[in-house]
Each structure stands twice: as C-alpha cells, then as structure tokens.
Amino acid sequence: MTEKDTENRAERSITLAELAAYLQLTKGTVSAVLNNSPYARSIPQHTKERIIAAAQQFNYRPNFFARTLRKKRTFTIGVIAEEIGDPYGSIIISGIESALSQRKYFFLTVIHRHDAALLQQYSDILRARGVEGIITVDTTLTNPPALPTVAIAGHCDLPGITNIVLDHAHAAELAIGHLADLGHRDIAFIKGQAFSSDSAERWRTICDAAQQHGIVIRPELTTQLDEDDPSPEPGYRAAKRLLATRRRFTALVAYNDITSIGAIRAIRETGLGVPDDISVVGFDDIREAAYHVPSITTIRQPLRRMGQLAAETIVDRIEQHTDGPGCIAIEPELVLRESSGCPTAQRHATPASGAV
After folding, report:
1. Are residues 149 and 288 in the same domain?
2. Range scoring the smallest mean pLDDT among 70-74, 118-122, 219-223, 313-317
3. Which of 122, 200, 210, 340 is 20 to 30 Å from the Cα of 250, by its Cα?
4. Helix (H, G, I), strand (E, B), or coil: what is residue 241?
5. CATH code for the domain in which residue 192 is found
6. Are residues 203 and 338 in the same domain?
7. Where are the beta strands (DSSP E) in 197-349?
8. Residue 96 or residue 7, greater confidence
9. How far separated are the first and last CA of the chain, in Å rounded?
10. Phi, psi of 76 (to 5 degrees)
11. Same domain, yes or no: 176 and 295
C-alpha cells in the first residue's frame, strides 16, 4: 500500500476487507479482535494492538447492515416513554443509551404522552422496524407484550414483563419518617397524575406510612396534579390550591422534585419561607434538586442506574432466550438538603438562656 493510498483511506471509512489486507491478516482475525469475540483470546496481544491501532488510523467503523444480515438480527431495542425532555425521563434514557452502546445495540425511542391509541400505534411501528425487545418508561401496559419487555416504573403483572420498581414502601417511610422525626404533624400532600404509573402505589404507601406515624391525612390538605406537563407549573398551581384553603400546614410532600420546585415558588409568593414556615420533600433526586434554592430534600431514585439495568436486562433476556425476573426492586435513599427543617413553633420553643 502506497503512502497516498494510506492517506486516502484515512480520509474515509475503511472496509473490513481493506483493513485485513493492509494488516495481512484474515478478515476473521480482524473481526474477532474488533468485536472482542471468544476467538480473540487466542490471538497474540501484539497482533491485537496492531489491529486496534490500524482501525483507529483508518477510521474503521463496523458495517451495521452486514452484521444484521449475517446474524439475521437487528440489534435494536424499542424505548417507549411518556416524555423525553423531562428531567426524570432524560436521565433514565441516558442510562439506557450508555448500557446499550456498550453491548453494541441501537435503540429507537417513541413518545406516547399517555395516549392509548398512540401507544398502540407506536408499539406496532417498533415491531415492524424489527426491534428485538422493548423498554418502557412511566408507561402502563394492559396486554401481554409480543416481545421481551422491561418496564421502568412498571407495575404490570403480565407475563413477559420484567418490572423495575422503586421500593415505594421504604421510600414513603423515609419521607414521612423524616418529617415526623422533625416534629411535623400538619402535612400537606400533592399526589401524582392519575395516568403516571407510580402515582397509585406511591400514594398508597404514603398513606400507610402516615398512619404508622400517627399523622392524619386531611382531604383539605391533599391535592392532585392533573396536567400532562413536565414543567414546575402543575406543582405551582397545586400548591396555590393548598395555600388558598388557609388551612395551616408545616410541611409538604410533593409527588416529585419538579412539583417541589413549583410548590416552593408558590409558597414564597405568599411571603412564607422554606423551610422556615413550610418544609418541602420531593421524590426522584433529579439534577436540579441539588442546585435549586433552597436545595431540595428528596427521596433518591438512581434513575440513570435504573436505565442501565433495564438495558442490561433486556439484552440478557434476548441473548440468553430467558424470561428474566418478574420484578427488580430498587432501594431508595433519603437525601437531606435545605428545604426541610423543624416546624417554626418547635424551633422557637428552646428555653431562653438562664432558664431553670
């Protein structure tokens, strides 16, 4: 190969045959090293290094379509999500992408916004495109899937589905127990939208935890998100409704962190402080929670890890031809930040200096 040939090939993607010819090796040897196949273990290390260096030099990229035709597979996963740009979904999808990339899989994403007809239509399109498995995010499924499926925030007791779910009972205990330990008894609640897959289970476990701590959940201090809007606006309006009742509460448990951000804005607009007058606890621990002012006390879900775990699970199910576990439980963590503290009355109840 002349120097000019080398320069020309470096400017474009080289084929596997050309790379093998340049290295004076068989295509099978080069392919084994670049795909890290079991056969590559028997290839000398110095040969592996030559192959990798040449692949980088000549900008070699594996031919996806050749791989697909050779193995009669697409190596593609369908990701069905309610929303892609919200902080919750974007972190999960980032984790999915990271794990699938390592396993050399592609993915196609569709957004259904809780429209049942659109969900069915997109599911059919993904199958027509040849996806080998499905990952759903905050999506309620009602029928057994035709393909291996992993559901993040899944509460689907259906064959063929592996549900990845937060341990909501533990999460509720962490949130309610934290506020109870601080001395809060008058607590307001913002429930999740009825269509959100976590909403019913999270509320049920919060009610159980409140009962265990002797905290009465008052209907007038309970409201629900009703808009399909991933911004803080629904949380802002929900908190406004609670404040408009003029019923006293010293703490607020919000459905998620985005709701908390909107609620804190509403509380401050009334002239009250967080946590001086009202403590606020959220869920998820999205990136914004740590940098909001005040930073938000929250129940952490390892969202990126949940995405990675879903991707690893679906690939294992496909490649090992197994059903996989029916459920994978994720442990929550209480993250203490600035938005929670003792009730004002309790904070001011410290005896004055010199008191007997």
Report:
1. no
2. 70-74
3. 200
4. helix
5. 3.40.50.2300
6. yes
7. 222-224, 251-253, 279-284, 297-300, 327-330, 333-335
8. 96
9. 96
10. -130, 135
11. yes
- What is the predicted pLDDT for the residue at 62? 64
Overall residue count recorded for the chain in this entry: 356
Q: Are 293 and 280 in contact (CB under 8 A)?
A: no
> Of 18, 39, 62, which residue constitutes the final position of a domain?
62
Backbone torsions φ then ψ of 300, nearest 5 degrees: -80, 130
pTM of the model: 0.76
- Count of domains forming the chain: 3
pLDDT tens digits, residue range 131-167? Answer: 999 999 988 888 888 899 999 998 878 888 999 999 9
**Nearest-CA neighbor of 94 among 145, 152, 168, 156?**
152
CB-based contact 332:174 (threshold 8 Å): yes
Given 43, 62, 81, the domain boundary residue is 62
- Identify the residue whose tokens are 């403590």: 279
* 3 state SS of 291: helix
Tokens linked to 167 = 């341990």
Q: Tokens 């080069």 sit at which residue?
A: 30
Structure tokens at 67: 């791989």
How far is Cα 275 from Cα 121, in angstroms, rounded to an integer?
46
The model's pLDDT over 160-217, given as tens digits with 9 standing for 90+, comes to 899 999 999 999 999 999 999 999 999 999 999 998 889 999 999 999 999 999 999 9
Per-residue pLDDT tens for 235-284?
999 999 999 999 999 999 999 999 999 999 999 999 999 999 999 999 99
| Other Cβ atoms within 10 Å of 133 Cβ, number | 22
User: Is 290 contained in some domain?
Assistant: yes
Neighbours of 149 (CB within 10 A): 28
Q: 332 near 153, Cβ under 8 Å?
A: no
Max mean pLDDT among 12-16, 25-29, 336-340 falls in: 336-340
Do 274 and 141 fall within a single domain?
no
